[in-house]
Amino acid sequence: MKLSFSELAADTAIGSFAGDNLDSSNVKAFREQAEPWAARCQTLILDLSALNFVDSSGLGALLSILRVMNGKDGQLRLFGLSRPVRALFELVRMHRIFLIFNTREEALEDLPGV
Amino acid sequence: MSIATLRPPVAAPAKPAVLASSAILFACWNPQDPLQRAQQLAPALLPLGGRRMIERVIDTLVEDGCTRIDVVVRDHADAIQSLLGDGTRWGCTLHFHFLPPTTTTLPTLMRLTPDLDAHYRIASADSVVRVTTTGDEEWAAWQGNDWLGWARLSGRSFARLTPCLLERQSTVNGFWLLDRVNRVNGQVLGDARSTRGTLDAMRQVLANAQLDPSAPASRLPGQSPAAGLWIGQGSEIHPTARLIAPVWIGRHTLIRAHATVGPDCMVSDGCVIDGNATLRDSLILPGTYIGQGIELHDAVAEGARFSRSDLQVAVTVSDGSLLDSVAGQTSRPATPWLERGLAGLLWLTTLPFAAAWRECKTVRQEFAHLDPVDGSALPFPVRMADGSQQAPGHGPGSWRAHFSHVVHPALPAVIRGDLRLLGLQPRSAAELATLPDYWRRLYQTGRTGLLNEALLLGAEGAAGDMRFTGDALACEAHGWQPALRLLGAYARRVLQDYPTMTRL
User: Fold this and answer.
1) B3-167 is a CATH 3.30.230.10 domain
2) What pLDDT shows up at residue A81?
3) Contact A91 B312 (CB under 8 A)
4) How many alpha carbons fall within 13 Å on the CB side of residue B383?
5) Dihedral sign, Cα of residue B410, residue B414, residue B418, residue B419
6) DSSP H helical segments within A3-111, as ranges?
7) Which CATH class is domain B179-325?
8) Sign of the dihedral defined by the CA atoms of residues B149, B155, B156, B161, in that order
9) With 70 as the cut, is the pLDDT of residue B143 above it?
10) CA B195, B196, B201: angle at the middle one, nearest 5?
């Protein structure tokens, strides 16, 4: 699992997945890389366009990041969900919990300083 | 190619003496052809002398007098539909049917109610064949051992194609049929178009059922019968679960607390819909577990796999708490003692006839089951006569030869419990290894037997679809009545062969 983060503005960062799945085999690596950014930023944006599969542990990891962000009144924004990932999100109703955008532009809209 | 660039309509000629007023045109005849799959090739759309193959096929059908053509499509459905239009160019009417995500054409045939007094053409859109016989019916178009998909047959024969079609007098039976087919064939959840077709068919069945007074609504515990709710025997609906009509629930299905099912849902036999799950516009195939709080819509689900028609995607879920099979079958049903006894009785009583009819010695042949868990081959021996692979129904005396060379010598295997009287066609381990996965799965938990529907249809040498259909139907728990009917039909054919052979 490789995640590349970049800082867009103060308190805002965007991360992109390099692999095509987020599951129990790489969820630990994902959390290790994402949690420091979640702790540091007020708005964290994740580009999921490379992902084709997310299992329940992957969804759990995303939820834990969301919990960190919600705990400090921050935002976790997701965009670029592929159709299989979208179907999985909808299956477990997570599309109602996360802020999901279709494109990067939509995800960055209304963000101050971006 | 747009419709405007096509040639002008071909005028419908006068009908021939033997009327073929309707036709079933399969434009998706060979979906398992790996070459077609790999190349995304639709033979129906291949250009042939400036026109597409399927147009030439329709020319032929119209020339034969067909005024109504039911076109069965799956892949490239939009392209075929926009190419053909509604058939006014030919002076006929075209009705399109989207094949559900199955590997056989049976579901589509089942949805068509044949006029028993009419004559039908069965046609394949990947070949132009003229069936020239003026007889009542003929499965005429053969090339080597492959049936090209062309036939002429009476409405009654067409009805016999799907053995239970004549029994479909009510929508409730229609439900049963749809469920039955889904149970055996719905193991391949493929592309979204197939999912959409299946869901369309399901909605149509449900809508028709609501209008059908012969479809009795079910009574929920403590409530009056509700229109549009059908609940199978042995199913349990938690009092706090919510069913929104139209909903059809199969047998022995469990709907747990606060689950919401409907509208437009069919939940097949043996499913568990766990608490707080929400289903709408979905078809749940047998033995599927839908986990707590799961939300499914516009979907066909089977086991751990679901396919969404709106997102055009099929997904396999790795977490069994979300979506899974209720219980993986780990054993094959044993041959009942009553059936073994019947086989013994049959073997004894027919011994003189079989011995007299047999023209060669029996030899030990190896067939195989597949292990229900890991799919490995489990060989078992059966004695049959040499050359016994010849299919019955092709030539005089073939049914009698089939009985004396195949069925009678193999009856001891039924007595031993290795075979059933009715079941999947026995195949060797090598042959099983060549079958596609969806077909091999039948052999993991299904019963292998001497007779099945495909045999009676004379489809042994026909297209793979038909052979699979026969195997798939054989997997069903027939019960004694259909089993005896099948045995009776086979016995009649063997006995009808007797005078033929004595003349020879």
Assistant:
1) no
2) 93
3) no
4) 11
5) positive
6) 27-40, 56-71, 83-91, 104-108
7) mainly beta
8) positive
9) no
10) 100
Q: Using CB atoms, which residue from B311, B313, B318 is nearest to A23? A: B318
Number of Cα atoms under 13 Å in the Cβ half of residue B453: 21
- The average confidence (pLDDT) of chain B is 70
Query: Complex ipTM above 0.85?
Result: no
Tell me how far CA of residue B401 lies from CA of B282, B349, B409, B467, B492, in angstroms: 48, 17, 11, 21, 14
CB hemisphere CA count around B400 (13 angstroms) = 19
Give which of B432, B369, B365, B378 is closest to B405, Cα–Cα. B365
Instruction: Say how many residues make up chain A.
Output: 114
Q: Which pLDDT tens digit goes with each residue over B73-86?
A: 777 777 888 889 88
Q: How many angstroms away from the CA of B318 is the closest CA of chain A?
A: 6
Domains and CATH numbers, chain A: 3-108 (3.30.750.24)
Kindly report the nearest CA distance between residue B287 and chain A, in angstroms: 18
Mutating which of A92, A94, A95, A100 best tests the B interface, going by the most B Cβ atoms within 10 A? A92
Q: Are strands B295-302 and B278-284 parallel, antiparallel or unpaired?
A: parallel
pLDDT at B68 > cutoff 60? yes
- Measured CA to CA, the distance from residue B148 to residue B282 in angstroms comes to 35
Closest CA to A48 of A107, A91, A93: A107
Q: Is the N-terminal amide bond of B482 cis, ω within 30° of 0?
A: no
Condensed to tens digits (0 to 9), the pLDDT of residues B385-402 reads 766 545 566 666 778 888
Helix H or strand E encompassing B366: strand B362-370
- Interchain CB distance below 8 Å, B315 and A93: no
* CATH 2.160.10 domain residues, chain B: 179-325
